[in-house]
Amino acid sequence: TQLLEQSPQFLSIQEGENLTVYCNSSSVFSSLQWYRQEPGEGPVLLVTVVTGGEVKKLKRLTFQFGDARKDSSLHITAAQTGDTGLYLCAGASGNTGKLIFGQGTTLQVKP
Amino acid sequence: NAGVMQNPRHLVRRRGQEARLRCSPVKGHSHVYWYRQLPEEGLKFMVYLQKENIIDESGMPKERFSAEFPKEGPSILRIQQVVRGDSAAYFCASSPQRDRGAREQYFGPGTRLTVT
């Protein structure tokens, strides 16, 4: 059974601080996707990483896919209160592309 | 949510009734995935469908649950004889599958099912 361990589960920081969220697995994924989910809504796709070692930047967010395509990280620079939310990583599995989700990281950015 | 539509957004059913959840994928997407999010748990894959075909139903309970994606119309997730443990948020996601490597999925807003 493929699993994605996401850490930390909860993170409370002050505005302006940096943070990193990790997603780790013993399995190889064909791609890895990061989502953000607001209460009562569906996950919204932030980025997809496909190639081992790939780094993608989305404004203050930096996403990295591990060389072996088993792990990924999300780094936020100078966090803002608007970054508050639930962040999910999900690995695409097998030939069908079904997603295996991590448990999520609840981020709270305080003013 | 990139155009994926789900309805109803909220559904209340009594134990033993049937629940029908509908999903219209992004226009042009022919691949649909259903996921379930139980209270205090993460999202779990249920079923993957292409037009008129079930490709992977390994995450779907063997009894009472069924899914379809007809040639015309939305994808339907059907739960017969609902029980309290079926209370959850059900999400549909669609994918263009143009690039087998990327496999990007776009999620709908979900249907919150409450079984009383």
Task: Write a concise synopsis of the structure shown.
With 111 residues, chain A is mostly beta strands.
Tell me about this structure.
The complex is a heterodimer of chains A (111) and B (116). Chain A is mostly beta strands and 111 residues long. In chain A, strands 2, 4, 5, 9, 10 and 11 form a six-stranded mixed sheet that branches. Chain A has strands at residues 5-7, 10-14, 19-24, 31-37, 44-49, 55-58, 61-65, 71-76, 85-93, 98-101, 105-110. In chain B, strands 2, 4, 5, 6, 9, 10 and 11 form a seven-stranded mixed sheet that branches. Chain B has a four-stranded antiparallel sheet with strand order 1-3-8-7, with no helix packed on it. The model of chain B has no long low-confidence stretch (mean pLDDT 92). Chain B is an all-beta fold and 116 residues long. The relative contact order of chain B is 0.34. The termini of chain B are far apart. Chain B contains no helices and eleven strands. Chain A binds chain B through residues 30-31, 33, 35, 40-45, 48, 50, 88, 90, 92, 96-104, and chain B through 1-2, 4, 6, 31, 33, 35, 42-45, 48, 55-56, 59, 91, 93, 95, 97, 100-110, 112.
